[in-house]
Amino acid sequence: MSDLALSATGLTKRYGEHTALDGLNMSVPRGAIYGFIGSNGAGKTTTLRIALSLAAATSGTITVLGIERGTLPAPAVRGVSYLPDVPGLYPWLTAPEALRLAGDISGTPRDVTDARIPALLSTAGLARVRGRVGGFSRGMTQRLGIATALISAPELLILDEPTSALDPLGRADVLALLASLRGKTTVLFSSHLLADVERVCTHVGMIHNGAMIAEGPIADVLARGSATGEYEVRLRLPGPESEGAIRDALAAQGADIVSAGAVGASLQDVYVELTRGGAA
Ligand SMILES: Nc1ncnc2c1ncn2[C@@H]1O[C@H](COP(=O)(O)OP(=O)(O)OP(=O)(O)O)[C@@H](O)[C@H]1O
């Protein structure tokens, strides 16, 4: 069995004269939380659609859980769940009802679905929530959407822009939910919110003009950025101090320096550097 949940080689997609994917290479290791990042029109959705057999490739290969994709028609790959950016949940259902429906649609036996529902509601932070989906916040709806995608216990969960439509608190909750899947489910999600990816992902792939410009464990990708020349010092002070007092405190008050070191490049820095610099 390959240790890759998804791999693409030379994946190309043309719409008439327009090249949406231009020889994309991509490797999503099993067990990774993989952030697929790129600006609008970079080719993220096209890649996910080909992986899900919702679109055909023009050339190249793509394999999902060991099964080749890229031509149509093709049956769904067992063990893969997909959540679009705005989950289509019926507003009149309660959260357990939405999960039961998702279980039925995925072909999960009813008793298995019913046994999974309490844990999934708890994972999604919805265990104590009553009422119907129509009354949920966007964040709650998104978390329920992720829970519905997990009802079949997929090996690979693919999400398109899961945090883009959410406010900061909603985003934080969804990111925590995705982070909690680490080690249990391979997660591949597209995003243009680089801070989100930096917070929860183990691996990252940067797509630009339909090609991968950087990919790998997040620390390796961050290491590709130039030094910022900035330094960070974290202090613990005895009480609230003015800036001047903080500076004095360093010398005079025996402040406890928790950590100090060079501030590395952020994903945002690496992305801007690679895309503006025309990296190959
Ligand atoms: N059905 C289509 N017909 C023609 N062009 C298309 C079609 N679908 C996508 N494209 C083009 O292919 C390119 C890649 O689009 P894609 O939706 O994959 O980008 P994306 O990275 O997902 O962007 P976004 O973040 O805006 O969703 C874009 O230039 C888009 O206009």
UniProtKB/TrEMBL annotation:
Alphabetically ordered keywords of this record: ATP-binding, Nucleotide-binding, Transport
The UniProt record lists the keyword ATP-binding: yes
SMART domains according to UniProt: AAA (SM00382)
Record-annotated ABC transporter domain positions: 6-234
Origin: domain of life: Bacteria
Leader sequence segment: none
GO molecular function, one term: ATP binding
Family: Belongs to the ABC transporter superfamily.
Protein name (database record): ABC transporter domain-containing protein
